[in-house]
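Lecture 7 notes: from sequence to structure.

We start with a single chain of 98 residues. Read the sequence below before looking at the structure.
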Amino acid sequence: MRYIAAIIGLLLSPMVAFALSEGLRNTMSKTFGWGGVGNKIVILMVIAVGSWVAEMVAGAVGKGNFCAVIKIVATFLAIILVIGVALDLLDHVSRIFV
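Now the structure, written as tokens:
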């Protein structure tokens, strides 16, 4: 029941969720904190939102060519990040068998 209250609190206010469940706070900080597994998800979301905002601004001022450059750069950043995650995964798997 505590976890349901923590999830509802998380949807309503992050401070309420942290006050209700210390375990949830620890789990989220380990997952989405620096060096955590979910940190890559947060970085991908920042890249997506940042490139979308930059495209909207560039489109509004009439710089259509710059919008294409923003899309290409965001795509390459995402691909590089995914390759980094794949290499980390291979590193962790190789440590298991060695």
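The radius of gyration is 19 Å. Keep this in mind for problem set 3.
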